[in-house]
């Protein structure tokens, strides 16, 4: 530290830092990206391993025999579903009771903020039916959940059939140490949300539900089952939950271990794992898988019915049966045995999983390091004393004046850009009725188009903010503003990454270069173009196309645009229905932050 | 010859002497035993087919001894009463002792009320005699001794989980002292009950598990059940109707519920052999009475189930407010065992239905996240028109910091003000919260008691070896006098003489019930004890400290400040200035 206390050496160090600023930034950025790509390279990553001893071996003898009967039950369920035109509540209650469960129902209703065009629903009313298998000699302190959604149409009947079959089989076993809750939820995530809120007696989203009559203590793990065919070719495990939360890795590893043991093909992100990691195609395959996961996680939406459990600190995953054109088929009995094995293992679990995934934070540290270096550089530039004026009398006054001016020049854009953010958050929902009356659009379109309109209107701000300022912007002014903006970005992205790493990473990847290069002195038109391209909305648009590309379902621009609109509406709905944080985060924080950089570019 | 004669007479003399001595001894022993009083042992088994189709078997073994353990009276001769417990009573001046070990949760909604309610895990409550000066110290010693006797972890009872309820646990035996300073109550919700607890419990019986009903207590079957609870109750009772002297009563009870679904493979049929893998061949020879009761109330004409062999003996009793009819099998009568010299009761079901118990309760933790939460206790009064008061006792560990100002009691959407509240706040690491209140439950309603809490952050050595499993909070206890079903029965005039049925008769109008809620499993904020996380934390700390000082030094501007000159130098400079010479 003596090195730094010495003013001369310190000055040298500072000048070194200022000079090397750009190379350091570039190196950090490249290193961050390279490290991220390295994650997909198998030798760099740890082999999947079990950290929980109780989950260690798959030494369970699975005996579930009744796959055919489960399918029959599924067909019966389908017939009753058709007859009832929705959830066959009475039939389910009776069937579950016949299997020796304690059966309860829960009614719920929800009016969406605007119609959901993807799932065609607006006023939602439904009933959840669940049966509790009480573990013998257990004091109702712990429970496991197996759920299957009751979806309209012909899908998912087999899942309900298998659920009931497993209930019957599990009921006759004596080794259960935890209660097992068999849940059939209506209206997929909305029903699940109602059930979970009822179970934990919270109300975060203003939904109406009737209180639950029976409970089984704290839920330790949950699986959601989706199965729409009598035979399947592979099982897909879906992990991404609300706000990009993931269940513990042990749950996924347990699933893979059982798949291997029983001989079921299992896929990650719909892709089979390959062993040729050293070849180019193998590597690109694993990069694709990883990117898919990153995109899904960044979207912050629950990708299966399990997604809402994670908020309550319950490890959960969805298991989807996929029937493609492969030769090798697996029947329902085998899936039943797979689930039996998993539940017996979960039953042995003495404590909930405790492992965290924190490896990725280093990547983000590298990316954000860039913004910190920038901030340091700006601070040093600001801190170098301005050349002294000749007459010492006006000096003080001028300093005070510049100080006020500086604060004002920073505060005004900050406040105005945040107000724009608030407008972006509130206006689309507030003005949907007015918009529907004025223009020939549906409510959903009105909401999305208002959002895009407000977003675009924000781009005109720099010209207007200056009218509010008393004088011309100075060289000092934009530096202070940029310093504030860069630090703001660093804190914002750091916090985002703690909640949702993928979202933080994608935002950092696009916003950090912006933070690095923007000054009022770069060529205006080109920079403005780059800035718009790297803005959150465009990032979302590219992500939509990229995601389709990764899924090997490329779309034309027209379709992509429609998809983009629906993604925005889904994002807003996710926020209002389940409390997803992505929309408010983008609208209230990230977008205003980006506007600050936009302001700097047009600084006068 | 004379010598021989002499020796013979000596022999006779010795023999006579020995005989006399022995007679005297026997007489003396008899006399001492009489001094200690008579003792008496009874055993019985009640089998009740439950509405859910399960089967409930309740054993009771009762030893009554006319003796006095009070006031330091030395008792050293034991016959039927177990010596180990007798010594405990004298040494620790115990007036009443109730201990129960339960594995499983009594499902009131499916099974109705049990004969002896008990919470999951271990429960111990003791009334000490008023001669005890250091109650806490005696309690501590007593729990350690009992821990040895019953092979259980009762030594984990300490001040952090012991409370002194002011109203919920009154003495069940005779005695006027009800000052709750002499009462201690503790539960261990995490205690697991298994064979090692059953064996010492069986050894307390006079016949052990050699003869009588105790033959049925085979652990491989008893622990293959839905519910298992064993208890020991010791209390002073009246010796006779005049109640001038006291006897000591030891009741050992064992309740078990067998799951019809699991073990019978769908056949609705039960027998003693299927339940216990034994049949009965004799009563305990030391028992003055040995009986099996089978509850056939729900089965007056035999349409629900049939029992074989049939018995002509019937008995009626009001149990838990309901008039029940029992078939009785007296094991002291040889005829009970029939020609095969063994009794294997058989019950076959025909149909079943659900019931609604008048009072039941449940409890859960609401909310998410690891900072705060809310305990909800729901109490259901299913009586169609009568309201009744209940006493709610909650003992919550200190690491859940209750916010007592958030306590709300609501029934039917309205605020229900408790008429009595006794709250003792916790002290960190010393004692738990104690909350007792008297609430009136309106008819046909659900009363909800909620209180918010904050989860404390423990010191890192205070976490259990499996901290992520969560921490247990014991059951809350609801004690109440519930209006009985008999009194509810408006058609009661049918069977009874008219003169007896105008005013509801007192002992039948209400009955005492204790209901335990389920224990809670609450997660506390837990540090990640895994190695990688610790490494990350450490590295981050080092980086933060290093980076902080670096940043600090880089951004702070340094200025060289001249030290102010001394007084002499200043004066010298003034003089120099006046002289027009440059200063020093």
UniProtKB/TrEMBL annotation, chain A:
Alphabetized UniProt keyword annotations? Disulfide bond, Endoplasmic reticulum, Glycoprotein, GPI-anchor biosynthesis, Membrane, Transmembrane, Transmembrane helix
Q: Where, subcellularly, is it found?
A: Endoplasmic reticulum membrane
Q: In which pathway does it act?
A: Glycolipid biosynthesis; glycosylphosphatidylinositol-anchor biosynthesis
Q: What is its main location?
A: endoplasmic reticulum
Spell out the Pfam families in the cross-references: Gaa1
The membrane-spanning stretches of this chain are 20-41, 353-376, 403-425, 485-518, 525-547, 581-603
UniProt subunit comment: Heteropentamer. Part of the GPI-anchor transamidase complex, consisting of PIGK, PIGT, PIGS, PIGU and GAA1. Interacts with PIGK.
Could you identify this protein by its name? GPI-anchor transamidase component GPAA1
Designated gene of the protein = gpaa1
UniProtKB/TrEMBL annotation, chain B:
Recorded superkingdom: Eukaryota
One Gene Ontology cellular component term attached to this UniProt record is: GPI-anchor transamidase complex
What InterPro entries does the entry give? PIG-T (IPR007245)
* Keywords, in A-Z order: Membrane, Transmembrane, Transmembrane helix
Q: Name one Pfam family in it.
A: Gpi16
Transmembrane residues, as ranges?
7-29
* Any one GO BP annotation for this protein: attachment of GPI anchor to protein
> PANTHER family annotated for this entry?
GPI TRANSAMIDASE COMPONENT PIG-T, GPI TRANSAMIDASE COMPONENT PIG-T-RELATED
Name of this chain's protein: Phosphatidylinositol glycan anchor biosynthesis, class T
Q: Which organism is it from?
A: Dicentrarchus labrax (European seabass)
Q: Which gene encodes it?
A: pigt
